[in-house]
Design a protein that fits this description.
By secondary structure, the chain is of the alpha+beta class. 53% of the residues lie in helices and 18% in strands. Strand 1 and strand 2 form a beta hairpin. The longest helix has 39 residues.
């Protein structure tokens, strides 16, 4: 009789533990779902938004503009600009060297990132471009800053530093 009680108590404790784990798991996924749906439903105000960084060790700064129309991203123009105003994506020598080393040029990576953002309308859905991890990270950082500005309707240039 004593062993039956021990088995029953063990089953009750085990059942309670499973219930708590299931409830905890369910609760955290619903809070994740609600926080991501909140981010997805941010209303972007129409306008052109610009972000810039300081000049890096290679003489380039991030320049990124987003155009929003009817609450949707209609254009993304991310690139790096040299002090003379030239763009990294237009630098033939740089692009050739990068493609030889990484398998993709800066121009291709930048074009891919810009197009993916306009298509997907969600920075978290834009994949890192293989061979251009640093560029992809800079793109994500500047896009997040611009989306925050677009949510507020702040058309002043955003500093990324």
């Amino acid at each position: 009789m004593k062993s039956v009680k021990v088995v029953l108590k063990s089953l009750v404790v085990l059942g309670a533990a499973f219930t708590l784990v299931a409830c905890g798991s369910s609760g955290s996924s619903s809070s994740t779902a609600s926080s991501s749906s909140t981010a997805d439903t941010a209303v972007l105000k129409d306008g052109t938004y610009t972000a810039e960084s300081g000049v890096d060790d290679y003489g380039y700064k991030i320049v990124h503009t987003l155009t929003v129309k009817d609450g949707k991203i209609t254009e993304s123009n991310f690139d790096y600009e040299a002090e003379d105003g030239s763009l990294k994506s237009a630098n033939e020598e740089y692009n050739k060297n990068m493609e030889e080393k990484a398998g993709i040029s800066a121009a291709e990576a930048i074009e891919t990132l810009n197009a993916a953002l306009v298509e997907k309308q969600d920075i978290s859905a834009v994949e890192v471009v293989s061979g251009a991890t640093h560029t992809s990270e800079d793109f994500k950082k500047s896009t997040e800053a611009l989306l925050a500005a677009a949510a507020e309707g702040n058309t002043e240039t955003v500093s990324l530093d």
